[in-house]
Amino acid sequence: MQEHLVLYRKYRPRGFNEIVGQESVVRTLSNAIASGRLAHAYLFSGPRGVGKTTIARLIAKAANCANAAKLSSGKLDGALLAHRNTDEGGSTRRSFSEGGLSVPCNTCPSCLLYNDGTALDLIEIDAASNRGIDEIRELRENLRYASSSGGKKTYIIDEVHMLTAPAFNALLKTLEEPPAHVIFVLATTEIHKVPATIISRTQHFEFRRPSVSAIAERLIKISTAERVKLDPAAARVIALAGEGSLRDAESILGQIMAVEDSRITEVEVEETLGLPRREAVMRFYQALVKKETAPALAVIEKIVDDGHDPEQFLRSAIRLSRNAIFLKLDPTLAASVSEELLPEETKELETLLQPVEASHLTRILSRLTAASDQIRISPLPELPLELAALEITKL
Q1: Mean pLDDT confidence for 72-81
Q2: Which of 80, 87, 180, 182 lies 20 to 30 angstroms, CA to CA, from 265?
């Protein structure tokens, strides 16, 4: 029986040209591969779900790829470019990369082993459950043995900040003088917990959250490959719900595709995820700006009656309030939030905010943010939201 894979595993990038939102990291690493100058140790830091371990696996695959250098320099024979696209369960997947050359090649025997998940030269360690000095000592013992294939062995230590102080000290010695056949890739979501001595002995790359538009574009490509029509507005809502994590956004898409087969609309996404409608959030914010108490409370009552989570609604209102302040204060700041607003929403907000003082908008954001701390402990989830609306509109 064939294994069913979640989307983020099925469509995990097979080459650097499929990575989303990490252009500077990809460019640097591709150049290193092309010149044969991969470092002995890397440190990847950044939010969860942005591609740290995915790129770590690509480094491992590229380090043993027979054609990596030729691909990076564009010198590979065109006959080798038709690579096999299979997911980890062995079934064929449809490719949607941006074209051009794929690095690694995904055609040589080594790459195929990595694609099938059977490569023995890739060792992944979860530091959250292997955080002691005994585990690091065992790792150091294993480092002495070269790869049976004669290539590079890659050790990926995920959540490396979870290691104990003695374990870090043991790892430090290894990073100072690693065997020539070993590459280390350390990954963390909390770089401030990694000792400076470790950071100084690695090449450190900071990963950033992909833009909403980049995530939405990726989701549309995946849905097309799955023969599902995903409306652009729906893709945007899913990207926002993922909160900057491409992996989370892909998981959400898979959840929705399990319910909606042929076409996914914005309304269906909001209903499936239990999200408040965008127009409801906009009506609520308009009432706060205009200091209209009754309409603001009516929106809250409606979202509660419809079964929506007041905390989720408040989070959406805070995001809109933040974006509105940026629109009001400076066109340069406005550009930074344009991805989160539809063109018609931007135009509507600009008209709404024109006669309003910035201090009132700041007060709205401040009061809503304070309500977010209270809503988790309130006996009535909607009460802090109602009190915030009363204070903002009655002041």
Answers
A1: 46
A2: 87
CA distance 53 to 13: 11
* pLDDT 10s digits, 344-370: 888 888 889 889 898 999 999 999 999
**Per-residue pLDDT tens for 138-164?**
888 888 888 777 788 899 999 999 999
Find out whether 167 and 72 touch, Cβ atoms under 8 Å: no
Q: What does residue 42 show for φ and ψ, rounded to 5 degrees?
A: -125, 150
Q: For residue 263, which phi and psi values (nearest 5 degrees)?
A: -140, 140
Q: Do the strands 41-45 and 203-206 form a parallel or antiparallel pair, or are they unpaired? A: parallel
Q: 309 Cβ partners below 8 Å, 6+ apart?
A: 274, 381
C-alpha triplet 42, 111, 245: angle, nearest 5°: 50
- DSSP letters for 169-199: HHHHHHHHS--TTEEEEEEES-GGGS-HHHH
Cβ contact 241:273 at 8 Å? yes
Give 203's strand partners.
42
What pLDDT, on a 0 to 100 scale, did the predictor assign at position 326? 87
Domain ranges of the chain: 7-206, 212-273, 278-394
Name the one residue in this structure whose structure tokens are 């990076």.
72
Surface-to-core class of residue 332, CB atoms within 10 Å of its CB (0-12 exposed, 13-18 middle, 19+ buried): exposed
Helical segments of 117-156, H only: 133-143
pTM recorded for the entire structure: 0.79
Domain 7-206 has CATH 3.40.50.300: yes
Q: Provide the terminal-to-terminal Cα distance of the chain, rounded to the nearest Å.
A: 65
CB within 8 Å of 255: residues ≥ 6 apart: 272
Give tens-digit pLDDT for 216-250: 999 999 999 988 999 988 998 899 888 888 899 99
Is the CATH number of domain 278-394 1.10.10.10?
no
Kindly write down the DSSP assignment for every residue of 288-323, as one continuous string: HHHT-HHHHHHHHHHHHHTT--HHHHHHHHHHHHHH
Question: Residues 6 or more apart from 84 whose CB is under 8 A from it?
Answer: 106, 107, 112, 115
DSSP letter at 47?
S
Q: What is the DSSP letter of 204?
A: E
Alpha-carbon distance values, 184 to 14, 41, 137, 180, 192 (Å) = 20, 4, 15, 11, 19
